[in-house]
Specification:
Butyryl-CoA Dehydrogenase, subunit A, domain 3, 2 strands, about 65% helix
């Protein structure tokens, strides 16, 4: 969907090694740690896509002219860009929190921080990229223009390691019970 290269791998007569034998930890904490790093990386990737979408939008608004002046001089559009920039700053802070939390993934507070970060970064990233498309108008939806790519990228990243609803449900369960999160969590359709 987002033009990321993909491949299919097939193994024949390949031997497997138990994850805990490689990492020196038991299986579930090793998976939890890997998931934490993955979530933090996705948050950072989404922030990068947001920043790029905002930059393209600012450039477009300053170049595109209507009625003899740049459309970026319109106060309503400037307010819209300011809202986008606030979203980027919030998401950036949450991505930093996720990176810090990934370094201490066994801590229940860190687990909550990771799920908060993925939830909020995903929501802000979608909002910012949708706003970028709207401010570009029709050109924003063309395959050739990069701002549409950033929106597709954000949607793909938001689905990896659980979409926003999954992280919201997991965070709710964590806050309700005070327990740590399991290495795997349920999809949005099954929160049992």
């Amino acid at each position: 969907m987002d033009d990321t290269p993909a491949a299919s791998l097939s193994f024949t007569d390949a031997t497997a090694t138990i994850v805990s034998e490689v990492s020196g930890t038991t299986g579930l904490p090793g998976l939890r740690d890997a998931l934490a790093v993955g979530i933090a990386a996705l948050c950072a990737d989404m922030v990068g896509a947001m920043e790029a979408a905002v930059q393209l939008t600012i450039e477009y608004l300053n170049v595109r002219k209507q009625f003899g002046k740049a459309i970026g001089s319109n106060q309503a559009l400037r307010f819209r860009v300011a809202e986008m920039q606030v979203g980027v700053e919030i998401a950036s802070s949450m991505a930093i929190a996720a990176a810090v939390a990934a370094g201490r993934a066994g801590d229940p507070d860190a687990q909550r921080d990771l799920h908060r970060a993925k939830l909020l970064v995903g929501r802000y990233a979608r909002n910012v990229c949708h706003a970028a498309i709207q401010l570009h108008g029709g050109i924003g939806m063309t395959q050739e223009y990069a701002v549409g790519h950033y929106l597709r990228r954000v949607h793909v990243l938001d689905q990896l390691f659980g979409e926003a609803e999954t992280h919201a449900a997991t965070l709710d369960a964590l806050l309700s019970t005070g327990d740590s999160v399991p290495a795997t969590f349920h999809s949005s359709g099954d929160h049992s």
